[in-house]
Amino acid sequence: MRTPFLRHLILCRCFNARIIMKLNNIIVFGIIVTAYVVSAVRFGLLQMQIRRTRVDRDDAERVLRVTHWQLEPGFREAMQWAIDRYNALPHVQAANVRIEQLAITERVYNQFMNVHLISGTAPDIANRGKTRLVQGNNMARFYTALGEYISDPNPYNQPQYLNPGLPDDLVDFLENAPWQDTFVDGMLGGYDWTLNDYYAIPISGLGSLRLFYNRTLLRDIKAFLAEAVEADPQPDWLRHCWIRKDEGGAEAGFLPDTPSLRAWLEHGEPPETLGQFFLYCEAVQAYAKARAMPFLVPISGSNYDPGNLAFLYKRIFTSHFADDLIEVPGENLRQIEALAGWESGIWSFRSPPFKAFLDFSRIISTYFPRGFLGLDREQAQRRFILGNAAIISSGAWDASGIFLGAQQRDRPEDRFEVIVTPAPMPAADERWQEYLPMNVTEASFVAGTPLAINQQTPHFRWALDFLQFMSSHSINEEFAQRANWLPAIVGAEPSDFMRPFMPIPAGLPPNVSVNLIWVGGGLQNVYTGALKLFMTGDIDADEFIERVERFLRNPRTGMHSRWVRELQWAQDFSRARDRAVGVEEFRMTFREDETAMDRLKSLFHGSLMMDRGVFPLQLWQRHHGDAPYPEF
Amino acid sequence: MAWVSVVLVVASGCAETKDREAAAKAGIEAVEFFDFTAALHLLRPVQAEWPEDDPRWLEITYALGLAAWHASPPRQEWIELADRLFERIAEREGDNLIGAMARMNLARIAEIVDFPGDEPDFETALSIYDALRTEYAGEDIGMQAALRQASLIAFDLTEASARQAIALLAEELERNPDTRWAPVVWQYIGDLYIRWLNEIEPALEAYTRAYELGFASVHRTHEFLWMMGRFAEQLDRPQEAIQWYRKIIEEHPRSVYGTWAHQRIARLAEDDADALPPPPDPLSVF
Fold it and tell me: What ipTM was predicted for this assembly?
């Protein structure tokens, strides 16, 4: 029972509480409005300031900013060297133009560029990648198409700018060739396939995947291995390396004991064949055990794909189905073709090449550190630099960091030399030789670090001029040598240090393999998840196959769903082609742009080939005859 | 994202957007940048008030037609707007090129399922393509109409439809041998022979004609050469196959088919060592 006083008190308190709540709401609302107004005013003032500073007055200094995320050792210093050279050019100084570098960490590059592109304050020149906002057609909204500027020679390739001593034919070529043709990849690294135009100028090469060896460990472990080979009896771990048939008749071991192997053991070179590579990895494990070095592993694997050698070799193992799956030679093997082939029994996860890949990947994973899927790229590099891994695989972009790290260890006795080699292939008498005939070609190498010009820059001509300077033969050559990256320009020499990363053209075409890693949707999750569990030894091959096939056979999510999605995707793609055709026709007619005709013909043919999903419909017909095409 | 663009244009308070000229310019630029939804919202009010006798009416109306047709996701209301605009252009422009382009677009809109529930109208599309093919024989637009017509016929995915499409295109080429669309037509004839009919010999002949004239997709020439080499081998014409493979090696040193081309030549030229070109120096390729 409540007394009247108590009731009064409660009512008062409730009343007061309501007033306080209302007051609180008003205060909070006021703070939000004030913050919004302050922010809007500040934004407006900043915009005015930016506009004021961007007004092209003859006496005003024009500052152009170049942004990228390449924080690898050497890159910024090399870029700054090129910028300083440019800023010192007489005509650049006369125009009061200055270039500034703005290196942003990769982790926030996306957010930085998104915010500044929208607010109109983005740098004049930027690496166009890692920016979600500019994906697809938005590239054209924020960056300038450069197609009309690349047909003339690069003015900075005129003889007065070239290094002396170049061959006459190269000088003649550089002086007269269209700017586009002076790039090793024909400027494809700056091309946008959606918009059919060039939106960036690539200034360096990323190089291909290579193996890095610790020379000190290589010397010691090869000596350890040579002793083991000469021992009588040989240790068990070594006897298991000799190629043979196991009790069940399956192939085991990696290579035979031959004179060529003995000869290799006598010199200090890294493994030359895949069999020697596996033998070396086994020797590293035995050496670590014998020397009580629990942290030493053969390969510094991680969750970073270039560090996982199984993925590198997978493309070769699964290229053997190409002749049966690709209907028209010269075309890429599409994922739906690969899956339709699986559905029709042309190949299976138990086919010998795929089974061999599973064996290969399980064995090679045992050379990685325990829990390698929890390690990232930097942790893997650190392990190698600390001398706790004999090998690491990565690309040229990591080379500087690895080389410097190895040479700058605190104690001189910890420092070591690094040797770089391509991934080895098996010799004729070694395991997997029938499945790994050659590496994948690097001929389609595309230059990287594509720098694009902001649509909103008031200094477009100077931005273009700077990119011509950066991609001139002499500047690009020295820039690449200083950065320890590969040059992007024809005839430019890399540093000796980078020569091992030059693309090797010999090899298999890259797009003839069954590749389900990027297949998308639930299948990708199931496939990659199961594959990783298999590699870590958590499940066996049968369980891996069972998981993937169960998913593919699921009437709701499996192949039925893939066919439906493929047709939908093809029809969407067909509409996208129509858009591109429509715009090219518009440009040709209303802009009188005759260069659009070549693009139009190419697009038109592409449109005919993919029209309304004709490809998956034909593929279905080929595999399933007159059966109706799946529908939702 | 297109909405962001619209909001940005409006919210930035640009004085230019109030100006019809500026809005028209921005809308047309948006079309050229594939930002069709922004273009639709910018051009729609402008086009409605733009005098039809003004010289820029045609460009603005055509651009709005493209924007309404291709704005994403497609809507019935917008597709119908595109239809009306292209019909008006076709009526107004009559026999000239832009009128014909508008009619091509009308045919394509009729042919394609643009939004859920849209019924394709193949009859209308075929009749427009056929009329354009006849009226503009030998001209770019006439050849495009012929290709679209052939594609629509072949979409039936039967042998008879493929042969009908090939006959139509062959007839066009016979009537207009000098058209600059001949490489595309020859290539598509080759595609029809191989993908629809699995007939290698006529396909190779058609691709050879396309190669002589220059493939439409120049950057894919090396891929087509590999295909032609393989077809020549299947037809038991080793010398011809070697000739195609040599072109890959000599004219496309950065082709991903270079190594395979070398291997095929080595196999085919066992009795003829001269046929084997020297392997390229890896560094010279780059």
Answer: 0.88
